Amino acid sequence: MTTQNTLTTESRLPNPLKTVPELAPVAEALFKAVGNGSVPQTTVSLIHLRLGQLVGNTYLTVMHTGALRRAGESEERITAVSSWHDAPYFTDAERAALALIEAVLTPNPHGERVSADLYARVSEHYDEKALTTLTFAIGQGLFFLPLATIGRPLPGVAPSEQWRD
Fold first, then answer.
1. Residues 132, 134, 136: CA angle, nearest 5 degrees
2. Helix 41-55 and helix 128-149: axis angle, to 10°?
3. What is the Cα–Cα distance from 20 to 24, expressed in whole angstroms?
4. pTM metric for this prediction
5. pLDDT, tens digit (0-9, with 9 covering 90-100), for 79-110
6. What is the DSSP letter of 154?
7. Cα angle at 70 between 73 and 154, to 5 degrees?
8. How deeply is 35 buried, as exposed, middle or buried, from its count of CB atoms within 10 A (0-12, 13-18, 19+)?
9. In this predicted model, what pLDDT tens digit does every residue of 33-75 receive, in sequence order?
10. With 163 labelled, which of 12, 59, 62, 101 sits at a CA distance of 20 to 30 A?
């Protein structure tokens, strides 16, 4: 069997909000909860960018790179997300959040993914509301991951313009 990697001009799926309108209030509630102000939007965008990198999804990496640029983040910080461990551009709180998304998405053959040490480190930077919000920010990225992988939306195209009719 031969596969062909071709560029497309439309996503695989139709607009999910038209196909399943019940999705709209769920997505809105998730955006509202994550945007409650307890975690900086920059941190949310950093972890969503890292999620896109870790799962190898161009749509997500382009979308969250663009969000960070529009928020005024430097190219150095955006570029260094993939190598954040040794990059000097991140706060300790951002590093904790990036470590958390990596732990959630990376199997640990030696025990649980989110160790007690990592949880304690994250808890040093985020109070209970912020830590819960950060947890839901990770969940938000994972909630939309199937649309980004199965639906294959077009990188760099606004969500309202790219789903096939």
1. 70
2. 40
3. 8
4. 0.90
5. 999 999 999 999 999 999 999 999 999 998 88
6. P
7. 115
8. middle
9. 999 999 999 999 999 999 999 999 999 999 999 999 999 999 9
10. 101
